Amino acid sequence: MVLGNLAVLLWIILDSLGLWLFNQAAGWIFLAAALIGIYGILKFLGCLRPCYHCKKCTFGLGRITALYFGKRNLKDYKETYGVAAAIFFYILLGPFPTAVLLVSTVQMFSVLKIAVLLGLLIVSVYSGLTWRTNRNRKTPN
């Protein structure tokens, strides 16, 4: 859970840095909005089960890790209210800052922008791959 939340925090910081390289005010505003959105709003959306000591919940921080970097079965609509909001925030954290940074890099090239862009792509693709279902799973007899 700790590593997953650190990964989400790194993702938010990379996004903010990418937008900050484009426009400093946009970077700071995005940082505040993303932290409030992810750790303020999305933290409270989640399990239908009212448990307080569940591995997935842990005061809401486990939900964030499960939604962005957890296994596919943790993203089931039957077990969580937060999937739709998580998809919205995934778009906010993944494609949006990446597209802005790509346009900014085309306008004015910088090695730092390329490094941040590669970091964003790696984290976004890795998180996106956790949403895929495993179609090669064998069913027991």
In short:
65% of the residues lie in helices and 0% in strands.
Give a description of the structure.
There is one protein chain. By secondary structure, the chain is mainly alpha-helical. It has one domain (about 1-130). The protein is about 65% helix and about 0% strand. The chain is built from six helices and no strands. The protein has helices at about 1-20, 25-40, 60-70, 85-95, 95-105, 110-130. The longest helix is centred in the first third of the chain and has 21 residues, at about 1-20. The protein is globular and about 40 Å long.
State the main characteristics.
141 residues
Mean of pLDDT = 77
Major sheet: none
- CA radius of gyration is 16 Å
- Class by helix and strand content? mainly alpha
Unreliable stretches, pLDDT < 50, 5 or more residues? none
What's the total number of strands?
0
- % residues in beta strands: under 5%
Contiguous helical run count: 6
Q: N- to C-terminal separation?
A: 34 Å
Helicity level: 55-70%
How many discrete domains? 1
